[in-house]
Amino acid sequence: MMPVAYPRRIAALLLRFAIWIAPHDTLDWGRGMLSELNHVQGNWGALIWAVGGAGVLAKHTLLSVILPGSHGRTVSSASELFAKEGPMRKTTLATIATCTLVSLLFFLAPVFRQAFSVSLMQWHAIFGTEDHRRLSPELEAVARKAEQTQDAEALAFVAVRHGNPSESTRLAEEAVHLDPNLIWVYAVVAVKFSSFPEIDRWVPALESFDPQNALPHLIAAEKIDIDLVDRRQVPHRVEEKPAAWKDAMAAAFQSSKLDNYFGRLKELDRRVLIRYQVDDPFQASTYDEWYGLPSYALGDSFCYAESLLESGQTLEARGDRKGAFEKYWAVARFGQMMGPAGRFSVRRNLIEVYKRLGALSEKEGNNVEAAFYTSLADQVHQAEERELAFARSGYGRSEVSHWNAFLVKASGLAMLVSGALLLACTFAVMVRGRSLRLSSLRPSRLTLALGFCGAVGSLLSGFMLYASFRPYAEIFQRFTRKGDEAGLTELSAFLGGTHVPLGVWGFLSVREFVFYFWFGVTLLCLVVLLLVTMRYFQHRTRPNATI
């Protein structure tokens, strides 16, 4: 339990600190408040008295910093210190008006409007306004116009971005109906949503369109996996998998290429962005999740590669070196075909495969091939070490893009806070003046100081927002105008960082941050309510003391 005298001690310390930071012309008044503290009845009443006096001193300290010269003479009475109106500061008002006007002029620049829109993305997670199953207003307009004009490319553009599986498949089928050459869009949509009835029709069409591509077979294998999960019949061994899954994976491993159609998608994106004058940089970000492969593809390829390795070892034990070599080589060729995704999914298989291929070559007396396979195993091992370092450093996230995303989010937040402060000050002046005529608007010194802070803060944060976003606007413009893909990875990393609310990076997840954010807002509201209550009791206790 708190001792009875503690509130009075805290009150004295609070007033002494306020006197220590207060301007010279308010020292006498502050000392008077401190001496009167001993005559205030009740320990809690003394604390409320001290909070009120310290608040007044803090206000004048702020005024003396922002408006030097506003305390040109010594304050001799409390009535002077509590004066609500001050002389009009023409220079300060001119500065406020100029900064506010320049801040508003920023919005005339398309790049700045893009930057401000990007800075607002962090609030979607906080307020829960981001619905991935619905299109943005800009994309909805593109979809409507595309359906009216029968623009197949624009329909495909919207289809791969739609968050609703049924709408995405409908738009994709309409686009392919208008232009059969866009049938590859089926693969992009199928990778995104993994399982829906149309896949059973799409996979054969994709196999006919691009028979050497392994992607349709991986999509078919994933569809089988998902059906097994839905029926709660998940096999634990490859031998227990359905024959259709084994046939799909065998066809994938026998394919000569793996094309996720991202190259075609980027070209289509660029043409549609120019045609419909879409200035949203998020629409140029690449679809690089899981390297454009089905989510089950990496696990499926690893399991099937393991089964091929076991088969090769069995054949090798029986003396069938040719059969074992074919099994091992199938795994190695598929891993090479998958590129970075292959190194990620079957990396352990690749190291083992290259070692066994080297051992078989050595047994056959081909030392050159044995040395070649040994060097390949060393390269995969080195790639594994690099990927581990890559993961420790934040999965390759560019520090520059991360920092710029932080600046954009912070600058956007600062502009919102500064704008709210300016609006509050304007509203307060209008209410106090009870008129819209400039001659009758006489802001108090505190209102003038807060308005000055808001105007300057808005201007500085606007400059920072523009400077931080400008390089990424140029990347977006180069891509749409010239097809230059240089920097798109940086753009994607930057935009990915802007989706995350300010302060989430590190140890907090988005969900935890949203919880603590609203908890902090609630706590702040309670503190404000407490201060208002204390202010009320301060006015009630003041008559008990002589100022």
Overview of the structural elements:
By secondary structure, the protein is mainly alpha-helical. Among the domains are: 6-93, no CATH class; 137-279. 71% of the residues lie in helices and 0% in strands. The chain has 24 helices and no strands. It has helices at 6-21, 27-36, 43-66, 78-81, 90-105, 110-119, 122-127, 137-149, 152-159, 165-178, 185-193, 199-209, 215-230, 243-254, 262-275, 297-317, 321-338, 340-345, 347-363, 367-392, 399-433, 445-482, 488-499, 510-541. Helix 5 (90-105) runs parallel beside helix 22. The longest helix has 38 residues, at 445-482. The relative contact order is 0.10.
Comma- or semicolon-separated keywords:
24 helices; mainly alpha; single chain; 547 residues; disordered C terminus
**Which regions have little confidence, pLDDT < 50, spanning 5+ residues?**
72-79, 81-88, 542-547
Structural class, judged by helices and strands? Answer: mainly alpha
User: Mean pLDDT score, rounded?
Assistant: 80
| Largest sheet report | none
Question: What's the SSE blueprint?
Answer:
Blueprint: H1 6-21, H2 27-36, H3 43-66, H4 78-81, H5 90-105, H6 110-119, H7 122-127, H8 137-149, H9 152-159, H10 165-178, H11 185-193, H12 199-209, H13 215-230, H14 243-254, H15 262-275, H16 297-317, H17 321-338, H18 340-345, H19 347-363, H20 367-392, H21 399-433, H22 445-482, H23 488-499, H24 510-541
Helix pairs in contact: 1-2, 1-3, 3-22, 3-24, 5-22, 6-21, 6-22, 8-9, 9-10, 10-11, 12-13, 13-14, 16-17, 17-19, 19-20, 21-22, 21-23, 22-23
